[in-house]
Task: inverse folding
């Protein structure tokens, strides 16, 4: 059958990784603005890259911007027209982007949004409309105002629901006529892996031994906030759709030993817990039991269960970069992935950053999620960070990137042929940007090269890579060119 008519091909970016302008337009500091580039830390040591303390936050506030790459991004704040024109040249049907909470509400507690921010995002959406590109907007993509993290310890506080909904109301009211598809929280499950980035939770502000409890409490507040945001959407934007967003950490048992299989089952149930709540509107019984056994108590208001039921999402979006395996053996060889580690799979190659490449895993993920939830799916992040070389004539040849995407697209098509309802696909990322995990520029994802190095040196000139033209053909043919290549 192939890709359906109207399939939303495009790319995905986040404000904190592309915009820059951290001190312009009235913007306040976000949690992402505290992320320091650490060239002396192994790129595969995500715990060290994501570690945060009150001292480090104070240092970051007082420091200049040079060591904090997300404050400069790739200057999308000033170059969005140029970049959107390049996306249009590729034929994008959609662009996933985020609205920086800390740009709209610099401290998070203001009653009214920052007018300069409203004007900026209106201009961005008008530019997208000019080219017929449908925006998919992530409301919370690691851009919580820093003041809320320090004053309330982020999402551990229920007060965050009201502050978030005030932000959501401002987004719906100002941008609703341009946006049909909204996502609530980027990789909502990541709050358990990097609490500060995802939830504004500072470990030092938690009582000793309670960080895990704090993360699940923060997740609960995000679930409730998502449900209220969906109900608000139904009132203000009845034709819009709300999706949730999961890091799909597809995990296989390392061997067929029953203990490996049993452990893998638990890992996958934990990963799917977050979408279970947002799609089904209730906590799964097995997760409730796990909380009980671990001594984790989620504080809920009497109305929360009804709110979760009334505010379920319309579709499931997810990121998929790699699969991993799991083993009960303490001696198993572990390798890095998307801010996680897993046991090395000997049947798969790895990227320069150690992420194992598994296109078939995307098909498996699509089938699993659709069978579980029976709602439309949207692949909103998928890609490979790589080292690119600019040739003497300015060209960038990236056959490794083309091969990665081609293999994943063919597997996605197989899932669609099996009956999985897939709305669209947005690559991470269509343009080189600041890495979320390591704050590097040299970890390049884009079809568009940006002349900037890890220290921020460069002209910021945009250049089309070979993959730019390849993806343009895929979009123009709605995937048919993938098979023409096979025939050649």
Result:
């Amino acid at each position: 059958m192939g890709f359906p008519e109207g399939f939303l091909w495009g790319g995905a970016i986040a404000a904190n990784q592309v915009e820059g302008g951290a001190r312009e337009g009235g913007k306040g500091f976000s949690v992402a603005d505290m992320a320091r580039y650490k060239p002396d830390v192994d790129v595969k040591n995500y715990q060290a890259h994501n570690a945060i303390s009150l001292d480090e936050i104070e240092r970051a506030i007082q420091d200049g911007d040079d060591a904090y790459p997300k404050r400069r991004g790739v200057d999308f704040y000033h170059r969005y027209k140029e970049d959107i024109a390049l996306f249009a040249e590729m034929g994008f049907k959609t662009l996933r982007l985020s609205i920086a909470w800390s740009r709209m509400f610099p401290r998070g507690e203001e009653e009214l949004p920052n007018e300069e921010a409203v004007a900026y995002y209106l201009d961005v959406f008008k530019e997208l409309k000019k080219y017929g590109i449908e925006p998919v907007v992530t409301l919370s993509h690691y851009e919580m105002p820093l003041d809320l993290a320090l004053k309330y310890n982020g999402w551990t506080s229920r007060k965050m629901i009201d502050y978030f909904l005030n932000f959501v109301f401002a987004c719906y009211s100002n941008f609703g006529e341009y946006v049909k598809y909204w996502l609530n929280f980027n990789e909502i499950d990541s709050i358990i892996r990097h609490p500060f980035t995802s939830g504004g939770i500072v470990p030092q502000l938690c009582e000793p031994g309670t960080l895990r409890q704090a993360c699940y409490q923060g997740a609960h507040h995000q679930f409730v906030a998502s449900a209220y945001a969906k109900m608000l959407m139904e009132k203000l934007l009845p034709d819009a759709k709300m999706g949730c967003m999961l890091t799909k950490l597809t995990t296989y048992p390392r061997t067929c030993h029953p203990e490996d299989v049993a452990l893998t089952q638990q890992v996958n149930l934990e990963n799917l817990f977050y979408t279970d709540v947002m799609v089904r509107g209730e906590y799964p019984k097995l997760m409730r039991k796990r909380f009980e056994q671990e001594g984790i108590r989620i504080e809920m208001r009497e109305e929360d269960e009804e709110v979760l039921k009334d505010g379920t999402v319309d579709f499931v979006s997810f990121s998929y970069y790699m699969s991993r395996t799991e083993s009960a053996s303490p001696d198993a060889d572990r390798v890095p992935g998307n801010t996680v580690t897993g046991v090395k799979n000997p049947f798969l190659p790895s990227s320069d950053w150690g992420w194992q490449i598994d296109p078939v895993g995307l098909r498996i993920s699509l089938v699993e999620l659709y069978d579980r939830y029976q709602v439309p799916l949207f692949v909103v992040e998928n890609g490979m960070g790589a080292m690119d070389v600019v040739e003497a004539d300015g060209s960038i040849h990236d056959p490794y990137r083309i091969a990665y995407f081609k293999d994943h697209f063919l597997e996605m098509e197989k899932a669609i042929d099996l009956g999985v309802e897939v709305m669209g696909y947005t690559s991470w990322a269509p343009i080189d940007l600041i890495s979320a995990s390591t704050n590097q520029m040299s970890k390049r994802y884009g079809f568009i090269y940006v002349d900037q190095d890890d220290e921020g040196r460069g002209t910021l000139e945009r250049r089309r890579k070979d993959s730019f033209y390849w993806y343009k053909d895929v979009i123009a043919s709605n995937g048919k060119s993938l098979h023409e290549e096979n025939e050649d």
